Every structure is written in C-alpha cells, then in structure tokens.
Amino acid sequence: MDGTYRPGPFGRSLAWVTALYLVLPILIVIPVALTDQRYLSLPQDGISFRHFETVLTSPEWLGSIWQSFTIAVAATVLSVSAGTLCAIGCWRISRRATELVRVLMLLPLIIPSIVYAIGLYRYFGPLGLLDRFAGVVIAHGVTGIPYVVITVSTALASFDPRLEQAARGMGASLSQTLRWVILPRIAPGIFSGAIFAFIHSWDELVMVLFIASRDVFTLPRRIWDGINENLDPAMAAVAVLLILFTLALLMADRALRRRSEG
Amino acid sequence: MSAATGHALGLRGLTRRYGSFVAVDDVSLEVGQGEFLTLLGPSGSGKTTILMAVAGFVAPSEGAVLLDGQDITPLPPEKRNFGMVFQGYALFPHMTVAENVAFPLRVRGMSRAERDEKVRGALDLVQLAAFAGRLPKQLSGGQQQRVALARALVFDPNLLLLDEPLSALDKKLRAELQEELKALHRRIGRTFINVTHDQEEALSLSDRIAILNHGKLVQAGAPGALYDRPRTRFVADFLGKSNFLEGVVRQPHPGGFMLEAGAAQLVVALPDGEPPPAAGARSLLSLRPEKITVLAEGEAAENIVEGRIVSWAYLGAGFSLRIETAGLGEIRANLPTWRSAFAPAEGLPVRLGWRAEAAVPVAEDVA
Amino acid sequence: MSSVGRPGIGWWLLILPAFALLLVFYIAPIVQVLTISVTEPSLGFGNYQRILTSSAVQRVIMTTLRICLITTVLALLLGYAIAYAITLASPRARGWWVLAVLVPLWISVLVRAFAWVTLLRRQGLINNTLIEAGVITDPLPLVWNEFGIVVGMVHYMVPFAVLPMLSSMREIDPRLLAAARGLGASRGEVFRHVFLPLSLPGVIAAAVLVFIFTLGFYITPAILGGGKTLMVAEWISLQILDLIRWGLGTMMATVLVLAILVTLAVFSRVVDLRRIFGAGA
Q1: Measured between CA atoms, how close is B56 to chain C, in angstroms?
Q2: Quick check: C80 pLDDT over 90?
Q3: Which of A248, B28, C3, C253 is deepest in the core (most CB within 10 A)?
Q4: How far apart are CA C120 and CA C225, in angstroms?
C-alpha cells in the first residue's frame, strides 16, 4: 500500500513492542558472548573474545560443527534433487492427478517431528542406520523435500508452459528440455530451496535426539546438552556464530532473488 | 494454388473430447504441399486444439493426423519435425536470439560450425542478423515475432504451424508483418498452417481458409470463394458483414429462382451446376452491404427495393447506411464515397438495387 | 490451450524419487510406530483407555491444550499488529519490518530458547537487573514453568502467524480504505468494518497454523519448561526414551497426529489450506 492510510497509535505501539520482543532477546546473546566473566552475564570490566576462542579451539565444538555441516550438505543434495524433479513433474502433470503427491509432500511440515523421530528410532534399528551419518542424512533429506518442492513450485508458477511445448515441438527430448530450458529458468528457486533445506538440517534437533547418540553428535545436539548441563558464556558465543551464519545464508538468498528479479 | 502437387497434411475425422465437451468434432481436411492454410473461427471454435493435435501436444480422442499419407498420430511432438510459432512466441528468455534460433539444431546434435551457419541464414531470412546477441526482452514485439519465425524455420521443418502469430502486435505492425509473412511463404514454398480469429488476417494471408465453429469444420475454400459464396449464415456473418433476407422459393429453374420475401419478389441467380431449391421451400439469402447500390433517378436493376435512410455514417472510404425498406425490414448498404452525387440524409427516400447473383442462398446454422 | 499437452511417462518418473523416499523413509516409519499403540503391551485399545482413566495423561493433554490456546491467541494478536504495520508501511519501512519477522523465523530455535533462558532464569539478566534496581528482593519465577513456555512459544510462533495474515492483508485493495475514510468513517471504523473483515481469512489460516505447530512442539517447552511442565511432545519422548513404554508413547503420538489432522480437516472447509502452507503446495 502507498502509506497514505496509517495505523492508529495503539496498532503502532503494539507493532513496535512486538518487533522489539522478536528481535531484542535474540540480540541479548551478543553482549553475553562478549562478557569478560566466566558465567552468563553482561560484560562488566570490558569485552572479551575468549569465549569465542574457547569454542573455536575446542575439538568437540569443531567436530560437531563439521559433522552438522557435512550432514546438512548431503541432506540438501538429497532434498534438492528429489524435490526439484518432483516439483517439475507435478507442475507438468495436471494438478488433479498429482493431488496425492502434493498432500504427501506437505506431511513433513504438518506432522510434529517428535512423531517422526520415534518412528525412525524404531525403523532404523533393524536397518542398522541408528547413530549413522547415512541415517541422519536420510531423515533430514526426506523431511527437507517439502521446502524444495514449495520454492521450486513457486518458481515454476511463473514459468510459461509454452516454453516447454516450444522446446518439445522443436525436437528436444525430455532431458534436453529439463537441462536447457526448465532448470536454467528455475535455478533461483532451486537455490532458495537448497538454502531452506540446508538450514532445516543444520538446525534439526528432535530427530537427532532419537536416532543419533555418540558417533553422530551434531551441533544442535551439543547445544542442547550445553543448555541442559552447563550454561556458560561459550554457549552464547556458539549462539552468536549460528546467528551470523544464518544471517549470511539469508542474505545470500535475498541477493540471489533480487538479481534474478532485476 | 499448388494443391495439385500432392497432399502434405491430412486430418481424418479428427475429434477431441474433454469430458463431455467436444472441442473438435469430426474434422477432415487436406492441406496441399506449399499451401498457406488458415484455421479461422471465434474463440472456443476448436481451431487451436486442431493445431495442437497437428503439433502433437494434444492427443486426438478419435481420428488421425497424416503427413504425406502416413499416420503420425502416435508420434510425440519432438519426433514430428514441425516448426511452430507460439502465441506470445515462447522465446526462451534466458537465451540470446542466436541461442534461441540454434536451439532446435542443438537438440539434434548438430555441430557448432554447422549450427552457426544455419542460424545466420535463418536470421538473414527475417532480417535480424544484427540482433543475434540480444536477449528476447531487448527486442520489440515485431522483432520477437520474427525471431520465433526464424527459430521455427531453421531446422527445415515439414510444416510451419502458427498459433495466432500476430495477435500480440498493434494494428499497424500487424499489417506490415502480414505482408512479410506472405512474402516469406512465397519465398520458401513450405506448407504453413495458421490459426487466427482475425478474419482480415485470414483473408489477406491465406491460399485457403477453413472456418470452424463449435468444433466443426463449417466451410473451407479460397478466401474469395468463401467471401462470395458462403454456405451458411455463420460463414456469411463471421467473414465480413451481411444482410439476411428470408422468404419462400418460387419458380425454381436451372440457374436461379425467385424469392418471395414479404411484398418483394427477388431475382436470385445461381452459379452453373448448383441446383435450385424446391418450390415453396423457405430460403435464406445473404446479401453483402457493399453489393447494394443506391439507384439514381430512372436507373434500373434486377432487384429493386424502396426505403428510407434511418441512419448513416461517414467512414472515409464509404458511407454506411441503415435503410428501412418497405417489404424487407432493415437493410445495411455500404456505398463508396466517390459516388459523390449522393448525399445521404436521415429520412431520405432511396431506391436500392442489386444484381441477381449478388444474393447467395445460405443454410441456417444447426446449433 | 495452455498446457493441456500429454504428459508422458517420463514426467511421472520425475516424481518417483521423492514419492518413493517419502513412502519408504517417512510414511512407513510413522505408520509402523503408530500401530504399536494398539499392539503393545497387548493387542487392543488399552492404551487409549488411559485417556479416560489416567489423570497423568489427562493432565498432559489439558496442559498442552491450555498452553496452545494461550500461545495461539497471543501470537495472533502480536502477529496481527506486525502484519498490519507491514501492510500499511511505506515501501522503505516495510523492508525493515519484514526483516524483524523473517530473521527470528530462521534463527535456530535452540539459540532462541537459550536466549530466553539467559534472560529469564533466577540469576538471569531480568531478575538481576530488577534486584539491582531495588524493584524486587527475591527473583521472580519467570522460567521453568508455564509462563516461560508461553513466552518462548509465542516468540517462536509470531513469525508463523504473521506470514498468512500478511499475505491476506496484501490482497486488500488500499483504495477501499481511502474510500471508506472519504465516506466519513473514522480510522477505528475503517479498521473494524473494512480492514478486519477482509483480513479474516488470513487470521483463521494463521490460527490453524500456529495451533497445530504448537500442539506437537518439543524443543522450546522442553527447555523453558525445565521438565516440570510437560507438554505432549516431551511427554512422548519421556515415555519412550526414559520409561520405555512404547504403547503409551505411541498412543499419545497417534492422538497428537489425529488432533492435527482433524483440526486441518475442519478448517480446510473454512480456509484454503494453500494459504497456510504457501503457494507451491
């Protein structure tokens, strides 16, 4: 809207309070991470980076970060390849015929991860996938598919179906049409989906609590243990690093979208 | 035209149903080699569905598509080797003009050098060689249309299919491109099949027009033949404008009959070999407004009707008159302005005249 | 004649990998585990009778519903204010408002729960500040109870509430608001009679979304509830990981899934589900 009609004082102040409520508590971890004390507190005599140093020199933290990263990358590859193909197929085949697939794709967003987690706990045992890299990748990859399907479908919604017809009419096979016409056009949507799928895996805790224990010990799992066992400023340092990382990913996504729109 | 040199495309009883809706109803049609055929009809007449069935994007519910006598109905679109210009052109927005034109060659695995040469040739053909490196969005509508044409022709297709190729352009550009398209067709001598709802475009471009309504083929023929001798009320009405005169057939004889319409007795001449209707039958005549003249004092004509001008409009090249006649109701007539002796005025009494072969018996449409 | 081509078998093959993955590694594990609720410890609906007989089970369900309702109402109220501000903001300001919603949405839920613990615990920043300022002498019980859970849950859910409401508010033609004012309506009347009714579909969609997300939420209640206030997700985890009572745990999981599906089914009549889950699905 053009801003000529403005909310009243009550609406405005409630919006401001809400925005502060959303943002400030997250920002509070920054000064806490920079404290010079050994316990969770605001800096007293000056700021210190020693808690960042603690984290970045700790083999446990670094190991978990690396493990989370590799799992997230592998899971993203799985989600993106399956999700993109599925979105394209659903787009091309009529909506009615693919209704079941579409509903299926929504389930991981609807069903609480606790339910899936206990399911996997039981299911992965006989398959030997408990506490395995592959097991976590499958769990995260499968539940990441909906994010990719949604972003790619959105990108496809603005894709002219006649381009696909034109390509086929000129003799292009299905795979040529995919590679040369469809995929280049929806690349930004795929990239967005990849970022969301990555963040989904990177932050995921509930499934990991059930299907991983010792060999696979991801970053969220280590944070969880930290919150439940020893609340120290190193945790705040980890939180700050995570916030920066997430922001960087979101910025990349925004920049990419802007470029593809411009 | 060149229809004598064997058939390039044939439709045999082509039918397409969507549920209970019949989009194309038992259409049979032959398109000769090198012919420019236009499928003309209002929206929803099934013309685009026919084109899509020819291209292979729509599977017929019944019937067949034949290319040089061979059934190609089961072939997928990419195996048919037909060039197609889509409505809105469907140029790939992420490829340059040259890449767009090269696309059909690339999918055929042609070498880069050969590809470049062909692309240059095709762009020369549509006079766009200078724009090879541009993206489609950097071109005007007319240029985009020509790129689409070059892309559809570059791989030597068996047929060129055009889906409303000019509808996205403004009127003036449309007229220019009509001429270009016609010249291109003459130059390359390929079979073109065009779909449009624009009757002027159909008349000016085509060797032959097939008129469709409600999924059925109503009449096909050369533009002049269709315009002069429409067979149904729909054709007469859709292709140009027409007056319709209804009456009872009297005195049928080889070469013509009399039509008793209200108080008037009209003389109707038929072309050679067309049998007259039976005496006493009801008949409907189509009479084009420009075939009616306003008779001068003492001037004679085979058919004469008297009336008064109800309203008139000046159209530059001519006058359009609405005349309330004594026995035939309201009649529209178009007069060229160069007959400057005539000055229309409301209420002016006039005598209208036309020749016996001007009025054409047409059938009522069966819905 | 847009895209009514004939999709060949190839297009179906594109769907196959995702479909198979979901079937084998998503649907199958869930179905398998939920059937345990009628097979362990013995065949039948014994586990489900506990809903009627066990006060512990009833307490968990009641606590969960109470927290869900409070969270939903608060998240809608705050989310509506933000969505309203975004809708009416100038294009420049809008970017910042949207950022204030999207950034929290994507920051790890663990980080956010940790931040709340830092703020709310007995020696946390809020209690310490208040004590130092002399406002209170004993720390307030701000966390490890229902209050803490609600604070953290509302914080988590507000962005989810904003998105559907925002999309429905943006469909409102701004000229309608100008027209209403031009016809003599006060700002309050314009809001009550024009804006609010037109944004209602978004509000309902947001309510459904927040409610079903809250029902099965695990991490925030587990951290901010401190094990004293149990919601169903944590209760299920407790049954299965600590007490090894699969029958009870899966019974509650089934109830949870059913509650969510029923909520969705009921509201799908009132509101377009695509509005809830985004355009693509």
Answers
A1: 8
A2: yes
A3: C253
A4: 12
Return d(Cα B228, Cα B358) in angstroms, integer: 8
CATH number listed for the domain at residues A60-229:
1.10.3720.10
Question: Number of Cβ pairs closer than 8 Å across A and C?
Answer: 299
Say if the Cβ atoms of C6 and B57 lie within 8 Å: yes
Domains of chain C, first to last: 55-277 (1.10.3720.10)
Q: Mark whether B260 and B322 lie in a shared domain.
A: yes
Q: Does C184 touch chain B (CB under 8 A)?
A: no
B208 in the same domain as B254: no
**Structural domain that includes position B302:** 241-362
User: Which H/E stretch holds residue B195?
Assistant: strand B192-196
pLDDT higher than threshold 60 for residue C269: yes
Q: What is the pTM of this model?
A: 0.81
Please report, for chain A, the start and end positions of each structural domain, with discontinuous segments joined by +.
60-229
Contacts of C176 (CB under 8 A, 6+ apart): C194, C198
B57 contacts in chain C (CB < 8 Å): 1, 4-6
Could you report the per-residue pLDDT of C108-122, keeping only the tens digit for each? 999 999 999 999 998
Which letter does DSSP use for residue A213 in this model?
S
> Do residues B76 and B29 both lie within one domain?
yes
**Cβ contact, residue pair A180, B90, below 8 Å:** no
Contact call for A160 and B87, based on CB within 8 A = no
List pLDDT tens digits, range A241-253: 999 998 998 888 8
Distance CA A119, CA C246 (A): 11
Q: How far apart are CA B333 and CA A72, in angstroms?
A: 79
Give pLDDT, residue B193.
95
Same-domain check for residues B37 and B75: yes
Domain annotation covers residue B346: yes
